[in-house]
Amino acid sequence: MKITMNNSNNLLMREQVIRSNTWGHHFFFLNVVLAIFIGFAYVYAAPPAESFISFVYLLVTWLGQISFLCFLAFLIFFFPLSFIGHFKIYRCLCFVMAILLHCLLLIDAKLFISIKVHLTWMVFSLIARDLDFKTGLNFNFMYIAVVVLILLELLFAKLATKEIYKKELRHNYFPAIVLSIVGACFIASHAIYIWSDATNYEKITNLRTVFPAHYPMTAKSFLTNHGWIDEDNSLADGTSTSSVSYPLNELTVVPKDNPENVIFIFLNGMSYSDLSIRTTPHLLAIKQSNASFEEHYLPYNTVEDNMFATAFGLPVEYKDDFLRHGIQPVTLTELMKQEYIVRLFASSAITNDLMPVASHLGIGKNKSQVSANDEAMFNNAYEFIDGLTEKQNFVINLDTTSVTKAGNNVSAHKQALINLDYHLNDFLKKLEEKGVLEKTLVVITSSTGDPTIVDTNTTFSKKKQHVPLITMWPHSSQKGVSFNKLTSAFDLVPTLAIEILGIQPPCVNYSIGNSLLDSYNREHIVTTNGKQLLLIGKDNVTFYTKSGRAFVYNKGQKQYIRSNLETLIKAMRDLNRYKG
Questions:
Q1: Given 3-state DSSP classes, what are the helix, strand and coil percentages for the chain, each rounded to the nearest 5?
Q2: 422-432: average pLDDT
Q3: What's residue 303's pLDDT?
Q4: What is the pLDDT of residue 8?
């Protein structure tokens, strides 16, 4: 009797598992169709396909990747649950699980549309910590979406149940055909990407991050090692293209009736703490009689990165793409249209080669001049200006290196500052006597901080990267004014664009900075150091790690603080604003 009961239970258990599996397959198919429909949001938000094959790749990846994610969900959740041996409980669990997974897909799609990021563990952990869900994004659509999902899943569950209880046993080939098509799309997607990666066809490789959890196969290193492709000549077919949208919209320009000149003077190696009556008396006098920005910070540690930020007003994440594709700053393009003469003067090469710096400023070799020292550079710049006519407008960049050459030697550093202060003052006096300053904006700042400053925080030294910023405006309204708002190298491009060239706001179309004359007082400056996101504030610098944790340095000690998801999302939106 006992054996009979056990056999009956085993048969019942087996029947429940088979029924659950059959129902689960029908339920899974309907949810694949729904997920593909939701996944079209990624196609909508993707960078524009610039060729027919990239358009095909986008479509097959949409069908293949979304279906693949559904298949993974089936293997991880739905299939193992069928072995619990209880059909009703299995249906309830699958119903709830399907709603949760579709909600995650909707949230991820919203994040990608808004800030071009996907739902990673960092973002998820921040959402979990901020129970009030203050993200700075509008997720109100989820109230309606959840209700719609519940109704659809109820419908799917009913259709799946109806399917397994049909009396007529007949083959329905439609699901098999659909799944075969999406499976073929998945394989085709990876095959196309392997080809595009091998040939460096960037119209396709630029679409790599469009879909969630998408890690396409690559083959460049394998094919290069076996001599099947030549890596050096992979761009010879001219298929390289940028993955960024810059500027975001067409610019409206109203040129000034009386155009003004601009002189950028970068006193490299000088921090704000170097200003003193003993070493820089002339610079202090210039600071007190003109507009001075007391909270000006460099976003990066190197001259090259800060020069890129100065030239484009954008984060360094865009540098490789911009330089590789020869994208010029919008200000340089407009300067050429308005027939400005642009030149770069440097006192010896700032790096091993001057061109990396000049290229960041959009200036070619024929428009750059290297001098033996600071004195010779100032003299050459003055001779160039003196040789121009009154009708010739100019923008020149002067980059000094004497202070950085002094290195970590404190006494040599001070002496270099004294000499630089003298030569700078002499240069400005000559310009004033010639009457050049009457219609010229002079910007005095630095692209790298004091090398003698030793900070326990090697990632970002707030004291070292706090540098002077002095603007000498031709009009009298900005004389003897001191500003305490946060400013950075990102703000120089909008200042040049709006105040000199007449490019109409908003400056978000081409920069993450603001005009120096803008009354907006930001809470922090957004930047990165490769592995971390940094928010530079007046009081401290907040670091965000990839795991979503936030910390500050308090008296040299790392101190973890509560993450602010709303602030972080806004920062990520600024950094990713121009990505396709």
A1: 50, 15, 35
A2: 95
A3: 86
A4: 54
- When pLDDT is averaged across residues 525-542 and rounded to a whole number, the result is 87
Backbone angles phi, psi at 284, to 5 degrees: -65, -40
pTM of this structure:
0.70
Percent of the chain with pLDDT over 70: 85
Q: Which residues contact 524 (CB under 8 A, 6 or more apart)?
A: 486, 535, 536, 537, 542, 567
Judge contact between 372 and 347, C-beta under 8 A. Answer: yes
Distance CA(404)–CA(545), nearest Å, equals 31
Tokens of 300: 């990066």
pLDDT band for position 302 (50/70/90)? Answer: confident
Instruction: Determine the Cα–Cα distance for residues 519 and 496; give it in Å rounded to an integer.
Output: 16
Helices (H), 240-373: 281-289, 303-312, 319-324, 330-337, 355-360
Task: Answer yes or no: are the C-beta atoms of 396 and 385 closer than 8 Å.
Answer: yes
Closest Cα partner for 324 from 418, 235, 441?
Answer: 235
In what helix (H) or strand (E) does residue 543 lie, and over which residues does it extend?
A: strand 541-544
Mean pLDDT across the chain, nearest whole number?
84
Question: For the residues 286-300, what does the mean pLDDT come to?
Answer: 95
How far apart, in whole angstroms, are the C-alpha atoms of residue 419 and residue 204?
53
Strand partners, 472: 442
Query: From CA 405, how far away is CA 413, in angstroms rounded?
Result: 8
Nearest-5° Cα angle at 374, 373 to 380: 90
Res 381: pLDDT: 95
Model confidence at 121, in pLDDT bands (50, 70, 90)? confident
Whether 273 contacts 453, CB under 8 Å: yes
Q: What is the DSSP letter of 51?
A: S
CA distance 294 to 386: 32
All structural domains of the chain: 2-220 (no CATH), 261-520 (3.40.720.10)
The half-sphere exposure of 112 on its side-chain side, counting CA atoms within 13 A, is: 26
User: What are the backbone angles phi and psi of residue 481, rounded to the nearest 5°?
Assistant: -110, 135
Q: Which of 290, 266, 270 is nearest to 397 (CA)?
A: 266
Kindly provide the b/e burial profile for residues 10-21, where b requires at least 16 CB atoms within 10 angstroms of the residue's own CB.
eeeeeebbebbe
- How many Cβ atoms from other residues are within 10 Å of residue 168's Cβ? 4
Q: Is the peptide bond before 506 cis (omega within 30 degrees of 0)?
A: yes
CB 252 within 8 A of CB 264: no
Beta-carbon count within 10 A of 494 CB: 25
Least confident of 274-283, 400-409, 433-442: 400-409
Collect all residues with Cβ–Cβ distance below 8 Å to 270 and sequence separation of at least 6.
403, 417, 420, 446, 449, 450, 467, 468
What is residue 29's three-state secondary structure? helix
Q: In what order do the strands lie in the sheet with 470-472?
A: 368-371, 341-347, 394-400, 261-267, 440-445, 470-472, 291-297, 482-488
